[in-house]
Give the backbone structure.
Amino acid sequence: MTALTLQPLHELVPPVAARLRPEDISRMREAGARIRECYRVMTRGGINIVGEVLKGQGTFYEMTHYPLDDVIDNDSHSQYYYHAHRGGELEHGHFHTFLRGAGIPAELSMLEYPQASAPWPQGDKAIAHLVAISMDAWGYPTGLFACNRWVTDESWYPAEAVMSMLDKFVIDHASPSWPVNIWLSNMLVLFRPHIEALLIHRDRVIEHWQALNPDQDIFENRQLEITGQLAISVDDWLAELEALPG
């Protein structure tokens, strides 16, 4: 029997601002300015991102989605919710962000996967997970992560397809909170290089695990939950972007 030879997984490392295109840097700076403005008005009001999402939702329970019916923009078909289940001192909970089927361009195809042991949402019910954002107890983001299919019960699109969806994510209304929706929409712009790195790495991790377990439906493997995560700081990343000329 021939031994299975696997290519080593590439290390997941944060992007470097100096390697980005000037037009992308400009766009991320603009997004960062909007995020700072959200922080400014919320601080003046004595509120924060997480507190606004949980406001009026009753007792906070692990695994429950907040707000209770999720947040959906019916024009862009973007969706998000906040919940907690990982625990620990560094994370209070996290946001999951999605693009729903009606907003996914028709030319983008989900992965063909004959081994699927559970049905994937199809057609108008298709949904693509974009990224998750970890939050601390003070309502500030601390990290980004990507996850396996079973975690969010999504349809599975390859990394390149999901990357092309990122620009379509926007929550352009004021429920449950206008500054929260502006903040979240711009977080996916400010940290797009990080999200792209996570998605590319995600697919490599899935391929690696599938090669190790060729007879398994790897997308339902409960031992593979988080495929990769990156620590983030809005202030530090903006400082790196703003230190560049132009």
